[in-house]
Amino acid sequence: MASSSMAMAATMNDLPDVILSIIFSSVSDTRTRNSLSLVNRKFLALERSTRTSLTLRGKARDIYMIPTCFRSVTHLDLSLLSPWGRSDLLSTASSDPFLLAQRLRLAFPLVTSLTVYARSPSTLNILLPQWPNLSHVKLIRWHQRSSSPHLGNDVVPLFEHCQALSSIDLSSFYYWTEDIPPVLQAYPSVSKALTCLDLLTVSLTDGFKSEEIQAITAACPSLTRFLLVCIFDPSYFGCVGDETLLAIVANCPILRVLHLVDRASLGSTRGEPEDDGYTREDARITKVGLVDFFTGLPLLQELVLDFCQNVRDSALALEALHSKCPELKLLKLGQFHGICMAIESQLDGVALCSGLVSLTIKNSADLTDMGLIEIGRGCCNLARFEIEGCKKITMKGMRTMASLLHKTLIEVKISCCKNLNAVASLRSLEPIQGRIERLHFDCVWEGLEEDGGILCFDLNEGLCQSVEHEYGSKRKKIKYSSDPDSSSSCMQSNGNGMFSKSWDRLKYLSLWIGAGVLLTPLPMAGLYDCPNLEEIRIKVEGDCRTGHKPSQREFGLSCLAYYPRLSKMQLDCSDTIGFALTAPSGQMDLSLWERFFLNGIGNLSIYELDYWPPQDRDVNQRSLSLPGAGLLAECLAMRKLFIHGTAHEHFIMFLLRIPNLRDVQLREDYYPAPENDTCTEMRVGSCSRFEDALNRRQILD
Predict the structure, then answer these.
(1) Which residues pair with 211 in a beta bridge?
(2) Neighbours of 162 (CB within 10 A)
(3) Exposure of 41 by Cβ count < 10 A (0-12 exposed, 13-18 middle, 19+ buried)?
(4) pLDDT of the residue at 460
(5) What phi and psi, each to the nearest 5 degrees, are found at residue 395?
(6) Which secondary-structure segment (H or E) carries 127?
(7) Do residues 152 and 183 lie in contact, with contact meaning Cβ atoms separated by under 8 Å?
(8) Up-side HSE of residue 180: CA atoms within 13 Å toward CB?
(9) What is the dihedral of CA 621, 623, 627, 631, to 10 degrees?
(10) Could you tell me if 132 and 105 are in contact, meaning their C-beta atoms sit under 8 angstroms apart?
(11) What is residue 389's DSSP assignment?
């Protein structure tokens, strides 16, 4: 009896350290690990000894505060050290620029993966020799390229100091496309060993030309992961065509991940190419070329072909993709037409890719509801589906597809589709409402009617649809269960214009909304009950210089108080354009627009906020205004605040009123980041004074 009682009293703390270490090593979420470390001293030591990834924050000059207990860290991120993005980062610690680098090496001796903001090559020349076994390096730079006359000078240190290098990530590093091929050719031993090369840089003004792509792939024959920005426009010299695709196949036959993205598609996606959905020019990509391309990549698992020129009649080529690339799990197609003809009941085109888990279709001019239904029938394992810029699909087609995929689909994005406004998008997802975890749609409020001050709409419209196929002399009628009253439906109207069924599993919500449009109708449009929503991203886009003044005092952030577990928000107004200085008569400057956007944010219990202020492109200014700083200071529950822009020092001091705020940073992570901040007072000294004031405060927990 005594032994039984002792056995029942055993706790997790009594497990051997070896088993506990294995358990701790399997936990990847940072906040969960931090919580485990607070249990007791033993758990603290085990958590520190098993952590393999760490992002350092704080001031580079405070060398004595570098933690020394994370001895097992293999991935180290130094890109967010303060002052952010400064060229003198290493020299701020001491007159000896190598002192900080040596202390970092002693604190983290096992680093094999490094992320660093490299504004100049000198930063790399100091840091990289500290870890000779580096296999992965990610460089970040939003400032302009250094004025070196030698091509590739900014990335040469990677090849000189990292002989074990296998992965390079330049997706957030500004460079010239001419910089890359010469360096890869000059260091053949390192280039041939590379397995991952990410050149999908959003800040590039031009994409890679055909001859540059051929030179890169010839220098790196071992690539399994290759991402880059290309030029597909046939009006440009050196545009990518069939010969380039075949060169990629010939030079890198073991590719598993390949992303080829047109430079124009990285910008705003709101513009529509033509009224009928077709662009004026066709890409120099043929059906025969695509078939040969797919045939040469049998190991492919992820494929992104995001063009801005037409690829017509692609169904036959996509059928070859199914047979030639049996391991394919992720597919994204941009400006592909004829991807699924939906003739009779025979599956064709992309609908034959039954192994797909993620599918994105962008700007397919002739994709119809029938095509969507065929995709739902054929791609029966889809967990993620994104559709953008497809004008012919409607709520009925999307709803039927959701019904067919109700067992697997958990992530959906619907954007820029003419017939799918906010209400139609949400109603089309009723069959999977109880399963969906991540969702994006556009806040286009057509279909909502104002009746006595209450926004409402008619839910009594029948959605039962039948799809007819003709084949041979027989006519077969197939009825899919997409009726709201059927058993597969997850939502019913409760009679007052709102949906009664909750979005139980929805954790992440992404929204696009035009500048000047109110967010207030969001709950009434069908998202009233989201009990587990934790994170929201709101993208506000538009030209405030040409629009009218908003009719209401506030944008509508207060309506997000409906969601009790909402703790993280990304409010992106970076593509909201206005007048940073004095606005013309009858117009509002950006400070008044910022007051409009942020009004009501103090009513939310936000733990973490990423905020991109609106900008004036004419003067390249993206700055937090006085009203914006005052309204952010009302977020009393906030702990972390990252402003992706700049601010006046006396404005940002308002943030010290937030009682438990402990992590704040200004990040000019947009191109071109200002070389010298002359439009505000935020210099290195200003940032240091604010951080010192922030760290002097007593935080209760």
Answers:
(1) none
(2) 22
(3) exposed
(4) 32
(5) -60, -35
(6) helix 121-127
(7) yes
(8) 30
(9) 150
(10) no
(11) S
- Report pLDDT digits (tens) over 82-102: 888 875 555 554 456 788 889
Query: For residues 516 and 542, is the Cβ–Cβ distance under 8 A?
Result: yes
At residue 550 the predicted structure's pLDDT band, cuts being 50, 70 and 90, is confident
Q: Are 554 and 519 in contact (CB under 8 A)?
A: no
* Ramachandran region, residue 48 (left: φ > 0; alpha: ψ -120 to 50; beta: rest): alpha
Q: Find the angle CA(202)-CA(205)-CA(206) to the nearest 5 degrees.
A: 100
Supply 534's token pair.
């934790």
pLDDT in tens, 569-586: 999 999 999 988 777 877
Q: Which two tokens stand for residue 619?
A: 């003067």
Instruction: Indicate if the alpha-carbon torsion angle 345, 351, 353, 356 is positive or negative.
Output: negative
Average pLDDT of span 522-551: 90
Beta strands in 375-448 (DSSP E): 384-388, 411-415, 438-442
Confidence band of 208 (pLDDT split at 50, 70, 90): very high
The pLDDT of residue 454 is above 80: no
Amino acid (one-letter) located at 231 = I
Residue 122 CB coordination number (10 Å): 16
Tell me what pLDDT residue 185 has: 96
Share of the chain above pLDDT 70, in %: 87
Write the pLDDT tens digit of every residue in 390-409: 999 999 999 999 999 999 99
Q: With bands split at pLDDT 50, 70 and 90, how would you rate the model's confidence at 343? A: confident
Do residues 178 and 154 lie in contact, with contact meaning Cβ atoms separated by under 8 Å? no
**Contact at 8 Å (CB) between 69 and 44?**
no
- Return all residues near 417 (Cβ < 8 A) that are at least 6 apart: 387, 388, 389, 390, 391, 393, 425
Q: Write down the mean pLDDT value for the chain.
A: 86
Which residue is associated with the tokens 């290309």?
230
Residue type at 4 in one-letter notation = S
At residue 23 the predicted structure's pLDDT band, cuts being 50, 70 and 90, is: confident
> Mind giving me the DSSP string for 571-626?
EEEEEEE--SSPPPTT---HHHHHHHHHTTGGGS--SEEEEE--BBTTTTB-EE-H
**Model confidence, pTM:** 0.88
* DSSP per-residue string spanning 625-687: -HHHHHHHTT-TT--EEEESSEE-HHHHGGGGGSTT--EEEE---SSSPPSS--SSS--HHHH
What is the number of alpha carbons within 13 Å of residue 593 lying toward its C-beta? 35
pLDDT tens across 164-201, in order? 999 999 999 999 999 999 999 999 999 999 999 999 99
Q: List residues bridging with 260 in a β-sheet.
A: 228, 305
Cα separation, 34 vs 594, in Å, equals: 35
Q: How confident is the model at residue 451 (pLDDT cuts 50, 70, 90)?
A: very low
Question: Cα–Cα distance between 462 and 166 in angstroms, integer?
Answer: 57
What whole-number distance in Å separates Cα of residue 665 and Cα of residue 65?
A: 18
Is residue 368 within 8 A of residue 340, CB to CB? The reply is no
Please report the pLDDT score of residue 422 as a whole number: 95
Tell me the three state secondary structure of residue 64: helix
Measured over all CA atoms, what is the biggest interatomic distance in the chain, rounded to whole angstroms?
88
CA distance 676 to 667: 14
CA dihedral 601, 602, 607, 612 (to 10 degrees): 40
Taking a C-beta distance cutoff of 8 angstroms, is the pair 133, 94 a contact? no
